[in-house]
Amino acid sequence: MRKRFLIYTLPVPLIAATTAAVVLSPSAHADEANQALEETIDSILEDPRLVGSHASVVVADPETGEVIYDRNGEDRQLPASNVKLLTSAAAIDILGEDYRFDTDVHVDGKVRGSAAIGDLYLRGTGDPTMLQEDYVDLAQQVAATGIKTVTGDLVADDTRFDDTRLGRSWPWDNEQFYYQAQISPLTLAPDTDYDAGTVFVSVTPSDSPDEAPTVTLQPETDYVTIDNTATTVASGGANNLQITRKHATNTIAISGTIPVDANNRNSWTTVWEPTGYATAVFADALKDAGVRVIGDVRLGQEVPEDALTVATHQSMTLEDLMIPFMKLSNNGHSEALVKTIGHEVSGAGTWNAGLAAIADFLADQGVDTSVLSQADGSGLSRQNLVAANEFIDLLSATKDAHWYETWYDSLPIACEGERLVGGTLRSRMCGTPAESNARAKTGSLNGVSGLSGYVTDADGRDLVFSILLNKYVMPGGVKDIEDQIVIALASFSAEEASAPMPQYSPPASEIDGDLECSWVKPAVC
């Protein structure tokens, strides 16, 4: 049974009182050190920002199963992106590290000379890493077969998944932001962060006041329409430029003002219906490759079984995909994997089918799925409810999995500055024993923060931890509270009960404390 501990009202350093005349046995020494650690974590959780909130914190030794600290570990909490721990582990186990997505092109009909007599099909199977250059390569493969004319239509096959594009209870007012892109098996990312279903919009001020700024898109496509009513103003003028996509359209409105000497304003903006977006970019690539499609563009029809394959593309392996997925906390990757799991396990590319398969995997790992609720793969939904204890059980069980090293390597690392190494922890816990030590999944929603993962203590012992903080409303965020707990764990020694906990002051940041790098993509973090 896991123990509960009282909250102390004053900060208590990681120092245990000792008397020179008393010689402690090793077990007594460890008990004393553990008590000091408990008191330290309790004192950290006394932070005024957590008054009226709900905190769950569990720390355990995965080798022995010993629970070192437990505060409300059985209470279900909103986990935010800590849900990705469940999704990613299940994906590696069910799909395999070598799993790849296919995107291919087919002709439904005869090829006579340079003419394809029939329709040309573009089929996607869920690859969230497709770039414009990949569609260009597919188009060039088609041209290399000698086809110059398609007498029928260009048809998009996105039937691998269902047509439910947005997840359960996702907030409607976030639908234009890149972290809440629509999910389709046929999609397109504007760059190698692989934010599928988005277009990169960059607004550059004019050289002269009173003129409209310049708007560029990556990729360049007519699938979206720019409505630019913005104005460039003199140096020192208001910089209040806004980039918004109008609901249920692909009209991106640029409004407000931007000074002549301001930096570009950039946005990764979602598109409405990513299947159409990918197909439009492929259609342009066909034209550039010298392939003319006489008919129209149609969406959502399955490739006939006897169609002729004329071009193929394979994604990176799932092992490689795990890096941008987990390091940058990519929501779209999570959801594509959930639906892919559903398709591979039960033949249904749906959230329900994928989540059912994930639940079966978790149960096999010893996670009590009867006490948790997983509503999506990414943690965007506020219907997700997971107890810290269940994360501890998963983090402990995975150490015996054959794919553990791949999973472990995908986690963000404290204060490792490279984006695809440190990920969402790259600016945190610097200059402390947790630096380059703690590996964990971050999580953020309004009033919700989480950090769950691994850290090695001062004795070289690996620990697992889960910190879930909910219902706080104080400004400034609570990320540094999580950091202080992890630093205390990295500093902890059962052999040296008198070792003090390092003092930690988080660096000033231009980012709202409630957010993390994966939400805002700033250059400063």
TrEMBL record:
GO biological process, any: peptidoglycan metabolic process
GO terms assigned for molecular function: serine-type D-Ala-D-Ala carboxypeptidase activity
Matching Gene3D superfamilies: D-Ala-D-Ala carboxypeptidase C, peptidase S13, DD-peptidase/beta-lactamase superfamily
Keyword Protease (UniProt): yes
Descriptive protein name: D-alanyl-D-alanine carboxypeptidase/D-alanyl-D-alanine-endopeptidase
Name of the gene this protein is made from: dacB
Keyword line: Carboxypeptidase, Hydrolase, Protease, Signal
Record carries keyword Mitochondrion: no
EC numbers: 3.4.16.4
Organism: Natronoglycomyces albus
Transmembrane feature ranges: none
Family recorded in the similarity comment: Belongs to the peptidase S13 family.
